[in-house]
Give the backbone structure.
Amino acid sequence: MIEFIKRLPKAELHLHIEGSFEPELMFKLAQKNKIEIPYKTVEELKKAYNFSNLQSFLDIYYAGAKVLRTEEDFYLLTQAYILKCVENNIIHTEIFFDPQSHTSRGIEFKTVLSGIKKGLDEAKEKYGISSNIIMCFLRHLSQEDAFETLKQSLPYKDFIIGVGLDSSELGNPPSKFEEVFKEAKKEGFKLVAHAGEEADVSYLFEALDLLDIQRIDHGVQAINSKELMQRLKEEQIPLTLCPNSNIELKVFKNYKEHNLKKLLDYGLNVCINSDDPAYFKGYLNQNFINVFENLDLSKEDIIKLVKNSFNSSFISDKLKEKYIKEVDKIAKS
Ligand code: ADE
Ligand code: ZN
């Protein structure tokens, strides 16, 4: 089954490009940009990747992102992730980036986007990998700040498919960003948001009712509301689950306690993603393998999860059909 998982063509819908920043590349770019890292070696840095909750991870993640300065840096970051896509048989990816992590340090929006786009254009050309870019507002910052970011993005609207919401969830509910999401919708952006990762179901109801999102990132806390579970099932609202992330950030004690299989069996539209793979011990295949080995997933479950990813993506129906056929070809072989 592990070989089967590896062979299946897959899509990834929840991946923070800054979260794919491997320590080796971080050290290389830090040296080039003359930026001090408070760790002497790659091994020492990796030892610091021992998190107790979301915030303890975000502190290290934002510190790491400060090493990225030039368009070339963002290109190299993206190029490295694309090589992981090739390794993991990811044929379509929708990646998040956090513009405010960079613009707040004086890096231009255009610099960040151009570097990422160059990497993704090359991915299409060299490997046939398709992609979409989603920019996330940092929810620990103000709605005003998010509005400023939305304004900065408008000249590049053609290259950004959607808007998301990430960072410190507790204390920063979706309602804080109701107006800016309304404006983003008017501008034609697709809408997604992290919700119900650590915070209770009220954040999920707000994300759906006030932000009008099309996909929920994480959403594992939905299990605590029968009403919400029913609604997610009826409306087939996608949940982009990230098992490794949930274990590393102590949302669940271990893989056996993860509720992915329960959500899937209830009939929810869930899929598997890697979130911040450089920090969470593995890329997409490893996420699949970890849940397969601990949650008694069948071959049909795996195929359903993979098809859910393609069907929940922001690609055309025609491309979805093409990709699903490719999945079926491997599934039947
Ligand atoms: N930014 C990067 N990864 C994140 C996560 N898992 N939750 C919220 N914000 C994030
Ligand atoms: Zn995330």
Notes: The chain has one domain: 2-332. The longest strand covers residues 130-138.
